[in-house]
Write a structure and sequence with these properties.
It contains 10 helices and 25 strands. By secondary structure, it is of the alpha+beta class.
């Protein structure tokens, strides 16, 4: 993107006398996606894209314009200025460091060095491995992308980034003629194809099929309040959905969060420490700078149970009297909004055996099938992928179709023991019509009096 630096400098120099602030962001991406159903390719998409957006601020109002034709930069700049001139608002930006940097993610196997045929073969290997007895259908998805971005603003920042991201996900459904159950897993990261090549694909696929079949023989889950152990994946979903969204600055300002005006308050038990860290390179939500050019770093949200920080863009940070946490995110064509990155519960001191040894009657929940949260009311419900009853300190009967629900603050305060293991999961988070890659996770976590729902 270096060839565009002089062009952007001229755009900024020409525009700054007419506005209070301007930033320019452009990106060039090379992407491939493959969808396979029941071992047969259903869809392949591959190609390159180029786009740029201009954002100007004047009289407290944004003007925003986007193009896929960089010869029209002057034209979209005029459009952005006209839009901001037609509006008035209360937008101000928090102070931000002026940065000149160039960052490139380390890649061992570039995606372009792996043919479409090789990628198809690996996906089919995983799909075939999952297709064991009683598995009636599989769906596998693969996507990779390399993106070069350039960000410049009227304050003097100039940031170039080059990142690579890859993900493969597999779903298997199994049936015994009466019920249907599912297995799911994914792998990938902010790396090159090596993150796929280094995995035992046959084992990856087989375990997904085995999970779906295993659930056919599981008993319907009981309902009621139980001491519950959440595995790292479900812990991550809990932290992301129940806490992460509630600390997003825009939701706070919209009076759509149970955590509004609670900075400094105790919202969880003393052992709870929660972070959002976009700088974590092994997380699927990694990025070195956000889309406003703010450098990312570990942001502790909860310390020893106390809410000490929020997630902010420069705009929301200014309104809340804070500094941006580097959580402004979007694809180039969309306006930046406040988003999580890698959000997780810090590990504790307990082994898994210590977590369950003194539970006479509890439940162990693994994985996630999604759920929902109402940040304003502070309530949530998540569906676990599978579960096991805990009897007298030991894992016993497998159960299926089980959910975990409750009040956000009560649940965080009922966390009474935290495992010493850790896993960061990867996925995508939707908000405001936009989707962003994220990581979430933590250790095994014990929650007292958790409300579990099932059919038993």
């Amino acid at each position: 993107m270096e060839e565009y630096i002089n062009l952007f400098e001229k755009i900024i120099e020409k525009t700054i006398p007419q506005v209070d602030y301007i930033d320019v962001r452009a990106g060039m991406s090379d992407n491939t996606s493959i969808l396979m159903k029941d071992g047969k390719v259903d869809e392949i998409n591959t190609g390159m894209s180029l786009g740029a957006r201009i954002r100007v601020l004047k009289n407290g109002a944004w003007g925003f314009a986007y193009t896929t034709d960089l010869s029209k930069l002057n034209e979209i700049t005029d459009t952005a200025i006209q839009l901001s001139n037609s509006l008035t608002g209360d937008v101000e930006l928090s102070e931000s460091e002026i940065i000149k940097d160039k960052v490139e993610v380390d890649v061992k196997i570039p995606f372009k060095d792996v043919s479409i045929e090789e990628k198809k073969e690996i996906i089919k290997e995983a799909s075939d491995a999952a297709s064991i007895d009683k598995v009636n259908s599989t769906t596998a998805g693969y996507s990779d992308g390399e993106i070069n971005e350039l960000f410049m603003n009227s304050e003097g920042s100039e940031i170039q980034t080059k990142t690579s991201k890859v993900r493969m996900a597999l779903n298997a459904s199994a049936t015994d003629g009466e019920i249907i159950q599912f297995g799911h897993d994914s792998l990938g990261g902010v790396k090159g194809f090596e993150v796929i090549a280094d995995v035992d694909i046959e084992e990856f696929g087989r375990k997904i099929g085995e999970k779906a079949v295993r659930l056919l023989d599981a008993e319907p889950a009981p309902s009621g309040q139980f001491t519950t152990i959440a595995d790292p994946l479900l812990t991550g979903v809990l932290i992301h959905e129940a806490l992460g969204h509630a600390v997003e600055g825009d939701l706070i300002l919209q009076n759509d969060s149970i955590l509004k005006d609670r900075l400094g308050e105790k919202i969880a038990s003393d052992i709870v420490n929660i972070f959002d860290d976009a700088s974590k390179r092994d997380g699927f939500g990694y990025y070195p700078y956000d889309v406003e050019g703010v450098k990312t770093k570990p942001n502790q949200l909860v310390k020893d149970g106390q809410l000490i920080s929020l997630l902010n863009s420069r705009e929301t940070a200014s309104k809340l009297g804070m500094k941006s946490s580097g959580n402004a995110r979007s694809i180039i064509a969309d306006k930046p909004i406040v988003r999580m990155s890698n959000t997780f519960l810090q590990p504790g001191d307990n082994s898994f055996d210590e977590l369950i040894e003194d539970i006479p009657d509890g439940i162990y929940l693994k994985g996630s099938r999604g759920g929902q949260v109402d940040t304003a009311k502070g309530i949530f419900q998540f569906n676990a992928a599978e579960g096991y009853l805990i009897k007298n300190g030991e894992i016993s009967t497998p159960v299926r179709d089980v959910s975990l629900s409750g009040n956000i603050l009560e649940t965080l305060k009922n966390i009474d023991a935290i495992g010493n293991d850790f896993k960061l999961n990867m996925g995508f988070c939707g908000k405001g019509g936009q989707t962003a890659p994220v990581g979430d996770g933590g250790p095994h976590t014990r929650i007292l009096n958790a409300l579990v729902g099932g059919m038993g």
